[in-house]
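Customer escalation, tier 2.

The customer says the design service returned an amino acid string that "doesn't look like it belongs to this structure." They asked us to rerun it and document both sides in this ticket. The original structure tokens are below, unchanged.
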């Protein structure tokens, strides 16, 4: 299974453990990114098509040709309940690859949402449906169905490598990719990070300064920071 494959659909993929994915869904993208060692983020130009969009699921990938959404229709057949479609393009394209009709098709298959390094349209309808989409552009320009890409091959979406079956989490802070074999460990690390942050939050509420809680005063003084009346 290679990123450069064209004209192939892989029908059998290994998905992240559903229980681990359900645990990941409890946490925000920032928490998961930090818990995983500050890796896995897609580029910040991938933004929610409407403000409340968020999703968590396992990746079905699509490699598209510019201005052509044929492979999204092919990908629909491979969707299982709980999947997220992650669509990349062989070269940059901001055409409107996806809209309300394809969202209706995806939802009927159990799809949790779409991440696409391209454009989408029918945003008002997507919001009404509460079908989460993260894209690089909103663009009314339509696409054709004329050239082959691939489905369920590794893709690079928003500068992040996504393999079929990896866990995908997206919210207002961005999109993060969790390798399928790390899903359970990252969920556990995210839970631990949340617990630690709650302790810090309580100290901040009580008025304690980060300067003292994080032991910052010595390093700052060492670099020459001084206080003057």
């Amino acid at each position: 299974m290679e990123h450069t494959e064209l004209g192939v659909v892989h029908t059998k993929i290994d998905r992240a453990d559903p229980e681990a994915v359900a645990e990941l869904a409890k946490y925000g993208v920032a928490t998961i990114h930090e818990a995983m060692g500050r890796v896995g983020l897609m580029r910040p130009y991938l933004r929610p098509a409407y403000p409340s969009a968020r999703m968590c699921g396992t990746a079905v990938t699509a490699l598209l040709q510019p201005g052509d959404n044929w492979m999204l229709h092919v990908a629909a057949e491979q969707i299982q309940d709980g999947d997220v479609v992650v669509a990349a393009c062989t070269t940059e394209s901001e055409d409107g690859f996806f809209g309300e009709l394809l969202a209706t098709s995806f939802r009927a298959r159990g799809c949790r949402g779409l991440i696409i390094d391209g454009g989408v349209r029918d945003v008002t309808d997507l919001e009404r449906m509460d079908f989460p989409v993260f894209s690089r552009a909103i663009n009314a320009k339509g696409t054709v169905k004329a050239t082959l890409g691939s489905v369920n091959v590794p893709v690079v979406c928003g500068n992040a490598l996504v393999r079929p079956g990896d866990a995908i989490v997206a919210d207002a802070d961005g999109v993060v990719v969790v390798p399928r074999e790390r899903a359970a460990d990252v969920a556990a690390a995210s839970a631990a990070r949340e617990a630690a942050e709650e302790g810090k939050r309580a100290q901040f509420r009580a008025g304690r300064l980060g300067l003292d809680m994080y032991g910052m005063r010595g390093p700052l003084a060492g670099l020459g920071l001084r206080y003057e009346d």
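Tier 2 assessment: The sequence is consistent with the input. Helices lie at 18-24, 29-35, 70-76, 100-108, 123-129, 183-205, 210-213, 217-222. The mean pLDDT is 97. Sent an explanation to the customer and offered a walkthrough call.
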